Amino acid sequence: MALTGIEIFKLLPKTNCKECGDPTCLAFAMKLAAGKAELTLCPYISDEAKEKLSEASAPPIRPITIGVGERKLKVGGETVMFRHEKRFENPPGFALLIGDTMDDAEVGRRLERFKQLEYERVGLLLRPDLVAVKSESGDAGKFASLVEKVRQNSDASLILMSDQPDVLAAGLKVSAEAKPLVYAATKDNLDAVSALVKENSCPVAVKASGLEELSKLTTKLTEAGINDIAIDSGSRTVRQAFEDQVIIRSAALAKKFRPLGFPTITFPCEMTDDPMKEAIIASMFVAKYGGIIVLSDFRGESLFPLLVQRMNIYTDPQRPLATTEGIYEINNPNESSPVLLTTNFSLTYFIVSGEIENSKVPAYLLVKDTEGLSVMTAWAAGKFVADAIGPFVKKCGIAEKVKHQKLIIPGYAAAESGGLEEELPGWEILVGPREGAHIPAYLKSWKA
Hints:
By secondary structure, this protein is of the alpha/beta class. The chain folds into three domains: 5-57, Electron transport complex subunit B, putative Fe-S cluster (3-methyladenine DNA Glycosylase II, Chain A, domain 3, Orthogonal Bundle), CATH 1.10.15; 64-313, TIM Barrel (Alpha-Beta Barrel), CATH 3.20.20.20; 326-444, Rossmann fold. The protein has helices at 5-11, 25-33, 47-57, 104-116, 140-153, 165-173, 190-200, 211-223, 238-253, 275-287, 300-313, 346-359, 375-380, 386-396, 417-423, 439-444; strands at residues 64-66, 73-75, 93-99, 119-121, 124-126, 130-134, 157-161, 181-185, 204-207, 229-232, 265-266, 292-295, 326-330, 339-343, 363-368, 406-409, 428-431. It has an eight-stranded parallel beta sheet with strand order 10-9-8-7-6-3-12-11. The chain has a three-stranded mixed beta sheet with strand order 13-15-14, sandwiched between helices. Strand 1 (64-66) and strand 2 (73-75) form a beta hairpin. Helix 5 runs parallel beside helix 6, helix 10 packs parallel to helix 11 and helix 14 (386-396) crosses helix 15. The longest helix is centred in the middle third of the chain and has 16 residues, at 238-253. The radius of gyration is 27 Å and the shape is globular. 39% of the residues are buried.
């Protein structure tokens, strides 16, 4: 049973050191009890107290990891109902469905699409995560053969899908070291499937015909020592599936109901035959509150918006996306190339760098760390002003790369030009365009 805030407080060091980010140990204890803080934030807690507090400090929704290596996927670990309360922790995984009744050519095409549909946006690589291999034939040998083919032709993490333990066993025989998610344990095969996942140390998904049955099944698994669980309430209508997602999240977070405190696996692919409607349903699960989202196929026109939506929702609202401070060389600049300045807000950087690249003019772009703020916001906050920019320009090393001493600053920071001339003696401060779209025309008139 979860501990109360006062019970947790009694086990804390009571130093009120504030290193956890809270003013007192009592405030920190209350956050722990509410599932809104992590025990690791306390630097002075004893090992004995850690052990006692493990239950209270565990996330209301248990995190699980599927796969190994660079492409492993972590889902769950959520602590809030709404993103603005803190942040969402682990983005849902998108899975491509491949069945063992598909011909080799179709399997090959799907795996190729899985590899190709990757996108770079604001410095992040957006791509799908999983391949769900489904036994449609019921043939264990055929299923194992497909699992092996997927492993050889993809580095994706795997979901093994069958309700037959012997079929799942055949798939695990060729993939157990990849730690796939085994789908699914049901009331009819629970003992056999739980034995399989314990033997192979793999996560398991539980499928039920409702939340009450689901709770009973997860309780049996946890009592058997199996905790890496994903859950499927069995709903295949949009309304019921949506309601189940909200109830599961609320029960785990608000009621601390452990039998439902696991990430969910959802199946838009089983709710419609219309690809675009499937994408809309998947979009709903990105927001509310799918842990794994299985799609019948991947299409660029629907997958890309889903990946962008996922990125936006699972970006920490308290931490803007930021680019690393430094000198960026665009279009192979030389000692006579112009030098431009901007902030490290990722969207600003990619707009400015993109316009410089489109201009075809070789240039250096200086990116100043403004804690992820845009030009206007950083200027207003005092983070993109002359006495901050000057030392950066001196230390970054741009003076050794160009023979001129001309710096182009954003039009929105024009008020800093006089101060920068004082901070950077010998430099000529040029005021560039306010809008990124005007950069190409401005650069084409550049003279060193």
